[in-house]
Amino acid sequence: MSETLRELWLRGLAFNEAAPADVLIRLLDEAAGEAGLLMCEGRDLPDAVVDEALHHPVERIRRALAHNLHVDPARLAPLASDPSGLVRANFARGSRHQPRWVRPLPYDILATFLTAREGGEDGRLSEQDIIGELWSSRQIPLSFAQDMAGHDHPAVRTSAAYQWRSLSAAQRDALLDDPDPGVRKAARESSWVLDPEAVEARLPPMGSRYAVSVLCGYALSPAVVELCFAHDMVNPLARNRHTPADALARLARHPDTEIRRLIATRPDLGPAAAAELRQDPDADVRMRARLQPSIRTWVEFDAVERVVDHGRNCTCPITKPADEPSPDWFAACAASGEPVLRRVAASRPGLPADLVEALAQDEDEGVRIRLACHHPLAPPHLLLDVFVTRPAHRPHLLTLSAFPRTGLTHLIGHPDPEVRALAAADPALRRPPVDDPDASVRRAAAANPSLAPETLETLLTDLRTAEGAAANPSLPAVRMHALLDHCLNGAATAQAAAGRR
Fold first, then answer.
1. What are φ and ψ of residue 453, in 5° steps?
2. What are the pLDDT digits (tens) for 480-491?
3. Buried b (16+ CB within 10 A) or exposed e, 359-377
């Protein structure tokens, strides 16, 4: 058996959806090489396999499992306190493939990371290194600070204190008066960001990167606002929610179109400035100003901001917001004459079924795409339509449980090989195209469960189709074990021979 054929069989078995746990556990053997690592990272796994991998003596196996986004993160909780700091860091970092739907870690796992006193028994990383990975991973819910400000452990309350602007006034007061001195210190160090005089006193040099960060989000005194105008640094003012009304009125007449665009949807924009912008010479500014009467709170503003600047091929992460507008506001958006507001409604996973049905037939393609990518009730035909017409969304759509896997035979002659590969996997297909010129189509066709057993055996010996055939769910478990016997015993023999040399 060639080394290439062995690797193809192993990879195919690793991703065979029908492979029983005892087959998958054998792939955790070091002799399986990269196939076991790819399996641990890249697919859902039975509980028995997860248990085996969680406590596997080979660190590389646990590190691969730590990147898995298919297994319930609660099942992976032991990895947060793994003896290896590299395993912990991988878990804190999350998937290497950055899926669109960002799955937050449960709060008990976050608390394990945040309260750790060391970075692993191996000493290769510190606990702060790992926490840094966690904060940059997008696995911390946006509601973290609000939900954890009253946590029992002071280290968790300290982390919440550093998210000062996300907290309520009552939570800020409680942290400033916390019984733990470390929490009180963190609260005092954070509180200046909402004190205009303190911000003015600590303002970094104008033009520096840190100054821009401060001017975009912290409370600003009148003197700092005037300094921004004097240095022509008004872009941060347009973004800052603490910018006073008189400054917004000046920004509404700013010659830079981008500045006018940034403030046109703000809920705190005065009626006179909003009326001016609805007559703006720039069409995009006028469109945004038309949206403004529908945006009365910063929570509604956030919902619109997540949509208004994003085109039909947007693949930005989908995260659960810390707060959401009311269902009535989303319903009003769904009925709006403005396509942007209908796209906002289509982006809400909790939108009622009757509104989903209406938006699925919306004349605006952006509305239909948003619905397909965000709503669990989006009809399968819409998911398929977006898959065919918008390649940018294909990886995400294929992860959705409602995505159709049958009724695709009409696409078997499509010029796009990704579309043909989807159709080639349809079990209703009479003759899967195992001779297609594209490798991905051949693999999908060879994995089609409608293939006859004798055909499958032939495909297993062909380098062009062996991986797909090994991934075929109709392959009997006995045959899977036989393939593993060939692969693993052959690898062990080769390793022994290499050792003798």
1. -55, -40
2. 999 999 999 865
3. bbebebebbbbbbbbbbee
Determine the residue type at 175: L
What does DSSP assign to residue 73? G
What is the pLDDT at residue 499?
Answer: 44
The token pair at 177 is: 């008066």
d(CA 192, CA 444) in angstroms, rounded, equals 58
386 and 372 in contact (C-beta within 8 Å)? yes
Instruction: Give the pLDDT mean for 6-32.
Output: 97
Which residues, other chains included, contact 275 with Cβ-Cβ below 8 Å and sequence gap of 6+?
Answer: none
Residues 7, 71, 394, CA angle at the centre, nearest 5°? Answer: 70
Which pLDDT score is estimated for 496? 44
Q: Report the pLDDT value the prediction gives residue 500, as an integer from 0 to 100.
A: 36
Q: Amino acid identity, residue 61?
A: I
The residue among 206, 194, 294 whose CA lies nearest residue 240 is 194
Taking only the tens place, the pLDDT of each residue in 167-183 is 999 999 999 999 999 99
Q: Report the 10 Å Cβ neighbour count for 150.
A: 13
Residues 6+ apart with CB under 8 A from 185: none
- CA separation for the pair 106, 60 (Å, rounded): 24
Q: Measured between alpha carbons, how far is 328 from 335 in angstroms, rounded to an integer? A: 11
> Cβ–Cβ contacts within 10 Å for residue 402, how many?
14
Neighbour-count burial of 250, counting CB atoms closer than 10 A to its CB (0-12 exposed, 13-18 middle, 19+ buried) = middle
Structure tokens at 301: 């503003």
Choose among 81, 30, 95, 88: nearest CA to 63: 88
Per-residue HEC secondary structure of 130-179 comes to: HHHHHHCCCCCCCCHHHHHCCCCCHHHHHHHHCCHHHCCHHHHHHHHCCC
Residue 353 burial (10 A CB sphere; 0-12, 13-18, 19+)? exposed
225-232: average pLDDT:
96
Q: Is the pLDDT of residue 46 over 50?
A: yes
Q: Cα(164)–Cα(162) distance, rounded to whole angstroms?
A: 5
Reading the block at residue 117, the tokens are 């006193």
C-alpha–C-alpha distance, residues 224 and 69, integer Å: 45
Both tokens of residue 87?
Answer: 């395993």
Q: What is the pLDDT of residue 501?
A: 41
Residue 446 contacts residue 434 (beta carbons within 8 Å): yes
Q: Please give the DSSP secondary-structure letter assigned to residue 26.
A: H
| Half-sphere exposure for 25 (CA within 13 Å, toward CB) | 13
